[in-house]
Design goal:
single chain, 11 helices, alpha+beta, 380 residues, globular, 9-stranded mixed sheet, two-stranded antiparallel ribbon
């Protein structure tokens, strides 16, 4: 059955009209939020205290500014730097396969600019059996499909970044970039026990500790394009509650009209009283963040609080703007790392065929279940 375009086309005009109504309501809410930001800026100490009193102990994530929350900063001129990025892709164990195995591909880019360091574009692959992911905790098998593979992939991305960033920082200033959130949310999931998650948390802490020990020569940032986060908005709503009819705003909605291209916001610190929040599980690695405008995109940049000195933040800011100018609005190093990491549809099919052939050579033959059989031979 294909999509009935006649039905869709008839309903679209009303949908567009509703969208316009929502946009108008959002515009009024954005103006109210920006007025609250100015109020916060006029008296940062009192306003921050009001926000903390209202939200401390609540599960709602919110943000507190380090200085003036309405401040904006133009990009510093880029200096000599080596930009390191890591990204990963994975093949989740197939529950219908005779040999349940995974594959992880971690791509990287090392791009030196004015620093005597060797450039590199490459990837490292890892394969293993589904049982290898359990680390002695059988309850991981009852977790959602792919959770363990994602956990291992996230850890390996960070570890690979560490392996490459530390030598780069030894040769001169360096910036390590990651795609997505700084701390993997899956580390605090309730869908697996602490016993199952502990090895991944320990490896994450060890990798972050190694980066922290590097000190001032290294900047670090996790880049989230078109972020839908609303921690700053949550703080602003304490100062000026939005109208009941207003749609939910994001932090990007607020900062889009305040930042010029290339500018960043003030530095904020993420807060929440939610038990088990991932930051509370990784002591010493609290998250700081700022918003960065690249063309019409408002990107969220997360960094460890220990990497938030003025020199480290300026280096990160300058590098991100320069990298985005080299890649049509997205950091060049992250794009190159992604290209190295990507596992195509053809790669996945070849992997499945190779596993099946080698299993067959070993006398292990695939058992086709009813669902697979019906998909292979469909009739009416």
């Amino acid at each position: 059955m294909t999509l009935r375009m006649d039905t869709v086309a008839a309903e679209l005009p009303a949908l567009i009209a509703r969208h316009e109504e929502t946009r108008a309501a959002a515009g009024a809410a954005i103006e109210g939020a920006r007025a609250a930001l100015r109020e916060w800026s006029d008296d940062p100490v009192d306003a921050s205290a009001r926000i903390e009193r209202a939200l401390a102990g609540h599960a709602t994530p919110y943000a507190l500014a380090e200085d003036d929350p309405a401040a904006t900063f133009p990009a510093p001129a880029p200096g000599p730097v080596t930009v390191v990025a890591a990204d990963g892709s994975s093949i989740t164990p197939d529950r219908f396969s005779t040999v349940r195995c995974y594959a992880i591909n971690i791509g990287h880019a090392v791009l030196p600019y004015g620093v005597p360091f060797e450039p590199s574009l490459d990837a490292v692959a890892q394969v293993g059996l589904d049982g290898d992911l359990l680390e002695g905790a059988p309850d991981m098998r009852q977790a959602p499909r792919g959770l363990a593979t994602r956990l291992l992939r996230d850890v390996r991305e960070l570890e690979r970044g560490v392996e490459l960033a530390l030598p780069a920082a030894g040769a001169g200033p360096a910036v390590l970039l990651l795609d997505g959130t700084l701390l993997p949310w899956d580390l605090h999931t309730r869908q697996a026990s602490d016993e199952a998650l502990a090895p991944y948390r320990e490896r994450t802490v060890e990798a972050l500790n190694r980066l922290k020990a590097c000190g001032e020569p290294l900047s670090m940032g996790a880049y989230i394009s078109a972020s839908a986060a609303r921690e700053v908005v949550a703080s602003l709503e304490v100062l000026a509650p939005p109208p009941p009819s207003a749609p939910p705003l994001t932090d990007g909605d607020v900062f889009r009209g305040l930042l010029a291209p290339g500018e960043r916001s003030a530095l904020f610190h993420s807060r929440s009283g939610r038990p088990g929040r991932v930051e509370s599980l990784l002591p010493g690695h609290e998250v700081a963040l700022f918003y960065l405008r690249i063309d019409d995109d408002i990107a969220r940049v997360e960094l460890p609080a220990w990497a938030a000195t003025p020199q480290q933040v300026d280096r990160l800011h300058a590098t991100l703007v320069d990298q985005c100018e080299r890649c049509e609005g997205y950091p060049r190093a992250l794009q190159e790392a992604h290209e190295q990491a990507v596992i195509s549809v053809g790669d996945r099919q070849q992997f499945e065929r190779l596993v099946a052939r080698l299993a067959g050579d070993a006398g292990i033959h695939e058992r086709v279940n009813g669902k697979q059989h019906s998909k292979r031979r469909r009739s009416v």
